[in-house]
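Dissemination and training. As part of the outreach component of the grant, students in the summer workshop were shown how a complex can be specified as a set of sequence lines and then modelled as a single object. The example used during the hands-on session is reproduced here so that future cohorts can follow it. Participants entered these lines:
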Amino acid sequence: MAIAKETLLHAYRTMRTIREFEERVNAEIMNGQIPGFTHLYTGQEANAVGVCAHLDKSDTIISTHRGHGHCIAKGAEVSGMMKELFGSSEGLCKGKGGSMHVADIDKGILGANGIVAGGPPISVGSALAAKIRKNGKVAVSFSGDGSVNQGTCFEAMNMAVVLQAPAVFVIENNYYSEHTSINYAVGCDDLKARTEAFGFPVFVADGADFFAVHEAAGKAIAHARAGNGPAGVFAEQGRYHGHFVGDPQAYRAAGELEDLRENHCPLKNFRARMAETGELSDAELDAIDAEVMAEIEQSVTDAKAAARPTAEQVTEDVYIQYTATA
Amino acid sequence: MPEKTMRDAINEALHQAMEQDESVFVIGEDVAGCSGSAGDVGAVGGVFGVTGGIYHRWPDRCIDTPISESAIVGAAAGAALVGMRPVAEIMFADFIGVCMDQIVNQMAKFRYMFGGKSRCPAVIRFSSGGGFSAAGQHSQAMYQVMTSFPGLKVVVPSNAYDAKGLMLSAIQDDDPVLFFEPKILYQETSDVPDEMYTIPFGEANFVREGDDVTVVAFGQMVPKAAAVIDALAEEGISCDLIDPRTTSPLDENAILESVQATGRLVIVDEAPPRCGLTADIAGLAADKAFSSLKAPIKQVSAPHSPTPFSPELEAAYLPDADKISAAVKATLA
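and obtained this result:
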């Protein structure tokens, strides 16, 4: 299936933006500029971008603690995200959420989520709303290989089948639940079969290959959008960083990270494919790289200069209206 | 004015809200009932009958679910985030134990964590409280626990009239609302208008008015306290009886103004005492009305124990007329 040039340009730009955003966030954390707990998506860019390429603004996604990539792929403003990570009151969430709770409801981003498998039940709710309204929207939940062992994930998958809701479960297998291997934590040999046993099709893709994810996600999303109930995507691709920034990654085999970066890079793979097909030139891609670098640099400059929150803002936005008379 | 049970009053509120607003739907275990079976789908209408008749009028908006409380609350939260007004039923408040994350880490915090840019107008209904010999996992009040979480509004009606008005307020509210229905009161009746009306949150009801002692009671303890106060009136003791109706927001002013007038405070709740509403309101009065107090504050609650099964044990466990009466008299001793 041919992909339009505009789509290719946008996909590459978005993957590059995620990569540079994450690498710069890593550096700023190491510099002591960004507080809190941060989990980076570097290496998994093709998953978010390959899936979100099929979504409209009013389709929804819900994300994970490793959520920056999903939010960028669904259209969150990089500058607002960077300000949020720096804890500014000008951030996307006014400095109330930080890395693990980046959200932009108007863009269909129901939030990164600090609870593993916290998102899938909520995504089924969004899918149920689409079904009740008969508006053809779909709701995508991203979650990791750790999430598939949470009861909430099972509940959400079964509920989506029972309600025939247009929910798409994107499971990103990066091989580790925090510091524990999937070989240990998933007690069966065939996770795809286990998931399909809930009663919906699962499409598998190499998560280092944008085109593979794009194709698998296309099938899953079309299935759900057509009113056939939920579908799943399994994308396998390791993360380049630890579970969190600062994780010494004692669980890695010797040479594992080097192999990931060298031989399993969605950006390299994308450029190799373009060199082969000639659909995009090196010059076009280099220009995008330069623009993205400048955008990320500017976002950090702006975040450092952005307003800091004040003490009276602590209790703002807890409720829309709270009518206690005292 | 027609007399209705609390069950029917809430049911009427649900019907009227669904009639008025297409974004309202009900979801939960057996809210229709019999789905997928050879029987009559919609015949159950909730194990306590509160959602009766809804399926037959709006089959697309009365949604039976598997026994999956996290998925039920999540579905309500997610649908609300995209503009629906779900009313989910968690059959027993005790089952908060299996969906706590979706309530307290998810729906309660969306608006705050997202910088005020979201709204989650979901209502979660629970049957709540003791009196049925339902033992340790089907008898807890739970509203006192949930009151401590910012981002949630918590409603505890004590009569049919309030239940209807508070439910209609809950459905119209743009914040997440937990609605605890004392199940021992489902069959109790009061005058309930047929038309729609709302009761604002954070506005206490003065069930009785008096000069000597302030009594604050919640949920099923309100009618119990009212009966005690009526009996004490015969002995010449007159009491304010305050039903806060919502524990979050709490009408602190009503309580403080009454305590400032009477100088004596008794708080009655069916939940165990630690970190509960009786301690919460005792703390409020000690902090903000200390100089008005003429006697130590008295708390009447269940003991620090799970709810027992045997009727004799449960009767000894729940606050009763004797305990409430003794507490009121103790403040006058």
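Chain B touches chain A through 56 residues (CB under 8 Å). Students were then asked to discuss how this feature might be tested experimentally.
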